[in-house]
Each structure stands twice: as C-alpha cells, then as structure tokens.
C-alpha cells in the first residue's frame, strides 16, 4: 500500500512542481524516450539475469505492492500456536503432534496463526525442522546448524533479487543520457528546419535525461530497497521460528520458549511480555 502511495506522491510532486514553474505537461510526453529508456533497461536486465532470477524479480515487485510485513498480532498468533502444539507434545510426547506437522493446513492449532499458515516458506521451514525432530533424537546444536543452513540458503537465493533491480535503477541515468544523445543527433540533423523545430527536439532530448534520473531515484531504486527490506523481515521471521524450536529442543517449557522467541522479534513488532503472556493463557 505504501509503495502505491509513494509512487503517487513522487508523481504528483514532480508534475505539480513542473506545472507551477510554467511547464507544459505535453512536453514531457515523449513516447520515443520512454521506448528507448524502458526497452534498454529491460534488455540490460535480460542480459544480466538468468530466467529464474527474472521470475523472482517480477514476483517480488508484484508482491511489494501488497506487502504489509508481519505484524505484532501475527507474531502473537504464531507463538500461541507453537505453544499450544508443544504443550500437547509435553503431555503426550512428540509423536502426538505428528498429524499437525504432516498436514499443517488441516491442523486445528496451526491454522489459527493465519499469517504463518498462508506463508508457504515459513510453514515448510517449521514443519520440515519438526519432522527431523520427530524422526529421532537430534542434538540441539545439530538442529541449530540445520536451521542456520536453510536460513543462509534463503538469504543467498533472494539477495540477488533486490541487487538485480538496483542495478537496473543504477543504469537508468546512463540510459537517460543515451536517449538524450540520440535526441541531440536528431536535433543536429534538423537545424535547417528552424528555431522552433530545434527547440522541440532539444526539449525532447532533455526529457530523456529527466526520465532516466526520475525513474532511477524516484521509483526503481526505492522499490529495490523495499524488496530488500521485505526479505530481511522474512529472514527475521525464520529467526523467530528457529529461536522457538531451539529453545524447546534444549528442554525449556513452551512458555519459556515463546519468551525467548519474543525477544528475537524487532522492537516495532515485538509484543510485550504481558501481551504474550495473556495470549498464551487465553486472556483477551
């Protein structure tokens, strides 16, 4: 939502400033400049990125328009679901929760954590780790290494997404100069058409530079930063899940494991001790 608001604010600010200075909006509508810069930017992305990365970039850009991150309530629901699950394991043994791990979408406990259950990666990270615990006795340090390896792989796999988009943004000012130079070439070839025609061509050429800089610093690079931040939040979500599982594997009761996991949540989404305690005890 904020991505859309930001795009609107940037656009309105630029257009308003230009018109207030007496500019004619029609002068900014240069289709040839859009084609030159946009086509070259897409082409450079195709040259620099394999198909798998292009798909990830496309998916990340589309998701960024509706991405809200993990809220405090989402964390509370997730930690509550984990605690309810491990309370059963504490009373009846780990095998008692096998059906919840094998089919989390059908679990009457895990489905209460809506954000968790709808996030396929977080869900598989938790369930796959729990399947290892169910398969046999795994020392906590081995379990920690297993989860660290998956988190590190996730980071390496997704870091190039924001970097690839950022490279496109960095190239846009240069591509804007290319479009402007092409415009100057057109201008120089039409000097015999009179001052009005030359002025029109020069204005069109300058629009190329303007578009390159605006698209880079007003839209593409900020969008790349947004995507990078979203991936950092996802990594932190995995760290919270890891903290809970590891705390329980070391012999802590579910309530203590939830408190340990709570402290690994970023401050702006972290529930207070009282909020988490109330949720775990079923208080509203």
Automatic annotation (TrEMBL):
Keywords: Cell inner membrane, Cell membrane, Cell projection, Chemotaxis, Cilium, Flagellar rotation, Flagellum, Hydrogen ion transport, Ion transport, Membrane, Transmembrane, Transmembrane helix, Transport
A Gene Ontology BP annotation from the UniProt entry: bacterial-type flagellum-dependent swarming motility
Residue ranges of every copy of the MotA/TolQ/ExbB proton channel domain listed in the record: 122-238
Cell inner membrane as UniProt keyword: yes
Coiled coil: none
Parts of the chain that traverse the membrane: 27-48, 172-191, 197-220
Pfam families in the cross-refs: MotA_ExbB, MotA_N
Subcellular location: Cell inner membrane
Motility protein A N-terminal domain boundaries: 4-93
Gene Ontology CC: one annotated term: plasma membrane
Membrane disposition: Multi-pass membrane protein
Annotated NCBIfam families: MotA1
Name used for this protein in its record: Flagellar motor stator protein MotA
Lineage of the organism: Bacteria, Pseudomonadati, Ignavibacteriota, Ignavibacteria, Ignavibacteriales
